[in-house]
Design brief:
This protein is mainly beta and about 575 residues long. The protein folds into three domains: about 110 residues, OB fold (Dihydrolipoamide Acetyltransferase, E2P); about 90 residues, Beta Barrel (OB fold (Dihydrolipoamide Acetyltransferase, E2P)); about 325 residues, Neuraminidase, CATH 2.120.10. About 5% of the residues lie in helices and about 40% in strands. The chain contains three helices and 44 strands. It has a five-stranded antiparallel sheet. It has a five-stranded mixed beta barrel with strand order 10-11-12-14-13. It is elongated, with a radius of gyration of 30 Å.
Length: about 575
């Protein structure tokens, strides 16, 4: 008997081991009730397949967010599209229900039973067929869905990675140029400068007869038919029109110092720029250690500064600055200067009288009365019209400081170097270099070393307005857009926030819709004027917005003030 057992056991071991070998037709991983869409799609092996629990490693359902909008009518009738992300892979799938009425809405989180359903390919795109309304359970609603930004070359060449997922195409235009009242209805060609992709809108879609923009950021579901790759918008909000601009030289020629006309004046490393209520444009001419004034008639003069890097209060040319980095103006026409190397905030009256507004001249972190308070590398400054406060961005203290009308200095927001949103005394910045206030009392910060634009509400809550936190140049949604050392900020009357994106050599804009666009600049340093998408800047550091909506830029390394004009 013992001999027989010794013979049987090795056979059982071999049989058991063999039965546990990987089956390439089955899903791998830890068994569970839910299979990711990435794993589900990988079960398809060039032929249609009926799904079983064995094939799905014990799973019997999928989960995800509905990214199609049946209410808008711009989805093949009876279809829904579901997307999820697992192990870093975002995948989606189209599910034809075979009925004109679907039981889910855009943003619903759903669980779908899939045992016995079939994976098939239709016109090269994968679908999950056999699903009925009874197989779908809605878990929650109104979920936010992030889109995947993709260039057309990638969308076309690697379509299987993007099909039936929500994608975003930035910096594209409709080609050919649409007629004045042309609508979305039908097939339109989007051009991203390298490839064309079709934007498809069903004639029955609720927005089909709305006017289509020539330039836009388009978000939609990547689908395919017999003619190729298509983008299907979910609703009209998926198209964000991108304004167009023209860049020109406004003032300055070559590096140097000269007053005169717009075409004869010279600047040296202009850092900061701002308008006063009378339409005068002031420039912090850092390399010349002077504050310059450009009158509405185009005359360029020196408001204050001897030209020597030093500290002295006084009138006009008798006063001295040391690295004037930024400036702002109040409602009375006074100019306030972030005098970096003097560790002070200086005030200049319309008559040119210069005084010290805050700062003892010693680098440090001390709050209190203006003359005894200490600042450390003040690089940014803004005037809050609601409170009358002067706000100062400190590069070395990583703080936003507040100088009240009585000249008492306090901390407005920040808690040492780092990154953290939250209440003002817990939030963190890293080398803030730009600050601006809007008409509602919100404050915007160019958080340079965090590569983000931050927002501080009047009640002291700090949040991230835009920027993923790593250096880059991506346009698109605020959460995924990237900046590279954002240096200056300005906000227009509509609440759009403009950014001088220093190392990208661009002017960017965070629209009120939460989309980031490029206003001007190719990304290559240069001095070319022209349309925004071909013009070049060279380390823009600050900007100011005129009453007519024109944008004026301190173009540091070009030693010029540039003008960016919106195109109607």
């Amino acid at each position: 008997m013992k001999k027989i057992l010794n013979m049987i056991l090795p056979v059982l071991v071999v049989i058991t081991w063999t039965s546990c070998k990987d089956n390439p037709e089955f899903a791998k991983g830890t068994p569970g009730p839910t299979i990711s869409l990435e794993t589900l799609r990988n079960l398809y092996k060039d032929s249609d397949i009926t799904l079983s629990q064995d094939a799905m490693n014990g799973a019997y359902r999928i989960s995800g967010i509905v990214i199609s909008d049946a209410a808008s009518g711009n989805i093949p009738s009876g279809n829904i599209v579901v997307q999820n992300t697992a192990r870093g892979a975002t995948r989606g799938i189209t599910i034809p229900l075979g009925t004109a009425t679907v039981p889910v809405a855009l943003g619903d989180s759903v669980i779908i039973s899939v045992v016995g359903k079939r994976l098939v390919r239709v016109n090269g795109a994968m679908q999950l067929t056999g699903v009925t309304a009874g197989d779908i359970t809605v878990v929650s609603s109104n979920n936010v869905i992030s889109s995947r930004q993709v260039a057309f070359t990638t969308l076309i060449s690697a379509f299987s990675d993007y099909e039936s997922t929500l994608v975003q195409a930035v910096n594209v235009n409709i080609d050919p140029v649409p007629a004045p009242n042309e609508t979305y209805s039908g097939d339109k060609q989007m051009n991203d400068g390298a490839y064309l992709v079709t934007l498809h809108t069903e004639p029955s879609a609720v927005f089909a007869n709305e006017k289509i923009p020539e330039y836009a950021i388009f978000t939609g579901i990547a689908l395919m038919n017999t003619s190729g790759v298509q983008l299907w918008m979910r609703n009209q909000q998926d198209a964000v029109a991108v304004p167009q601009y023209v860049v020109s030289d406004f003032a300055g020629t070559t590096s140097g110092y000269a007053d005169g006309t717009l075409t004869t004046a010279k600047f040296k490393s202009p850092e900061g720029i701002e308008f006063d209520p009378q339409g005068n444009l002031y420039v912090a001419d850092r390399g010349n250690n002077r504050i310059r004034k450009i009158a509405p008639d185009g005359k360029v003069t020196t408001l204050a500064g001897s030209g020597t890097a030093a500290f002295a209060d006084g009138t006009g040319l008798a006063a001295s600055f040391n690295g004037p980095w930024d400036l702002t103006t109040d409602t009375q026409g006074n100019v306030y200067v972030a005098d970096q190397n003097n560790q002070r905030v200086r005030k200049i009256t319309p008559a040119g009288v210069v005084t010290t507004y805050a700062g003892s001249g010693i680098a440090g972190l001390v709050n209190g009365a203006g003359d005894i308070a200490q600042l450390n590398n003040p690089l940014a400054i803004a005037f809050d019209k609601i409170t009358g406060n002067i706000l100062v961005g400190e590069n070395a203290n990583h703080l936003i400081r507040r100088v009240a009308p009585d000249r008492v200095v306090s901390t407005f927001a920040g808690n040492g170097s780092g990154f953290a949103d939250g209440v003002w005394y817990e939030a963190q910045f890293k080398q803030p270099s730009g600050v601006a206030a809007d008409a509602q009392g919100n404050v915007y910060v160019a958080d340079r070393a965090n590569h983000r634009i931050r927002k501080i509400t009047p009640d002291g809550m700090v949040s991230t307005l835009a920027g993923a936190g790593t250096a880059g140049s991506n346009d698109g949604s605020a959460a995924t857009a990237r900046f590279n050392n954002p240096y200056g900020v300005a906000v227009d009357a509509h609440g759009n926030v403009y950014v001088a994106d220093l190392n990208n050599h661009k002017i960017r804009c965070v629209l009120t819709s939460g989309i980031v666009i490029t206003v001007a600049g190719t990304g290559t340093a240069g001095s070319t004027s022209g349309a925004g998408n071909v013009a070049q800047l060279n380390q823009p550091t600050d900007l100011a917005i005129a009453a007519d909506g024109s944008i004026y830029v301190a173009d540091l390394s070009n030693n010029k003030v540039r003008k960016i004009t919106p195109v109607d």
